[in-house]
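Minutes, project check-in
Item: structure for the 565-residue chain
Input as provided by the requester:
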Amino acid sequence: MESFALHSLSTSTSFSRSSLLHHRPRPISRSQLSLPLNPTSRSIPSFKSPIISQAFPFPSKASTFNPFSKPRVTHTPIQASSSPPPSKPPPVLQGAKPVPFIISICIGLIVRFLVPKPVEVTPQAWQLLSIFLSTIAGLVLSPLPVGAWAFLGLTTSVVTKTLSFTAAFSAFTNEVIWLIVISFFFARGFVKTGLGDRIATYFVKWMGKSTLGLSYGLTFSEMLIAPAMPSTTARAGGVFLPIIKSLSLSAGSEPGNPSAKKLGAYLVQNQFQSAGNSSALFLTAAAQNLLCIKLAEELGVIVSNPWVTWFKAASVPALICLLATPLILYKIYPPEIKDTPEAPALAAKKLESMGPVTQNEWIMIATMLLAVSLWIFGDTIGIASAVAAMIGLSILLVLGVLDWNDCLNEKSAWDTLAWFAILVGMASQLTNLGIVSWMSDCVANILRSFSLSWPAALAVLQAAYFFIHYLFASQTGHVGALYSAFLAMHRAAGVPGVLAALALGYNTNLFGAITHYSSGQAAVYYGAGYVDLPDIFKTGFIMAVINAVIWGGVGSVWWKFLGLY
């Protein structure tokens, strides 16, 4: 929603009070603090422009609006004022942020010209590594938006003749990247039709009599939606946060003040921490999962029947974490309100107002069942995952559930296409030029000097991969920057390839809840205003340790049973 600013055009004329429109504020009724009743509408945050009452004295009584009347203008003499003229606001900085820009560039230049090139590495590979490191530094420091900075890196690689134009743009035809793009469109379909909202509201109705039951209902509903709505951020902002805010406000729990801890803070923390395990459970639950599988294939690690293999390996540890997370947070971050008897009634009222399942919702259900079935059995019948997604999107477009403007307006999808393809292309060329194998050999030699067994090396490398994410503001950016290198290190240390590839993929989802900037959903939930920043870091670290214990302990036993090692 756009906000409009009022500007005074001249000090020599002024409108009389009777010509100004005055809108009385509408009182907020209690019914407005219930669950949103329109399934297709969403709470969209808006930025309110300040009301400058000194410059615009509004009348005490509302005047009648006549569209055909002319405003009466009275001319007043210009009077000298003793007050100094208002100071001009400082100019807005355009372009790249200077300090992050200089640091990011310098990192690449230092590697290129000051660090001695290893004998095993070719000049072309070393130059590409320096460009890649500058690109990664820019992803962390953000001198420009991610897509713009990645494009600068791509341009540099072509201008310096490090890569040919064809090689630089080769990843733009990557099937997995297009599968990720189409997943954003599927997520928009869930939000537009209201199907995700309806599913979550049913779980609130069934399980929402207590705060703990409410948290389990929201957690299970996200788990159910996740495989067919492949965007954790879309699930957070489009489905679950509006429901959590409505329930919290109805219980008198408001953001930004002590009442937040009555209910809203706990529900936000629970959904935030549970989302990582929901995303880790299914290959198609998050875009970064698909990217992990693609990068593993480029290193020669082939995961057969990836959707089923991913789900089987994740099922036991992820389900245990999903069952444990609401209860653990209930103990370490307890809500003040323990019972929510009004929640099922509010949910029932909302479902009644939504009416029966609409035609578009049925189409969405059928399309996603088809897509998930093709993702599961696609290898058997010879249909690739990207092709299955294309079929699903085509059905939604033909039947009018989505139109092309919906796709065009999904800016995050097209932005992801640009910078994902650039990072994947660079990482692929680094692999082809031997940089990744050289780095992995160096790390493997260091690990061997400590006489680490491959299970110990697995633990050390997984922990390093996880905690490095404190430097990243994007899960997918982390994957594009480090996944290939860490997978190569695992293999050089003797870790079974498929086990290493899957473990890194699961970790990629779990570290999305350690900070308020660690993922897209982190920004959504923190931006709601219910959780203080210290609580985000504290709870994020505690749950990271608990997840590591469950995934490392229970997961290792389960993976041994499945024959992954």
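Outcome recorded: The CA atoms of residues 22 and 305 lie 64 Å apart.
No further action items on this chain.
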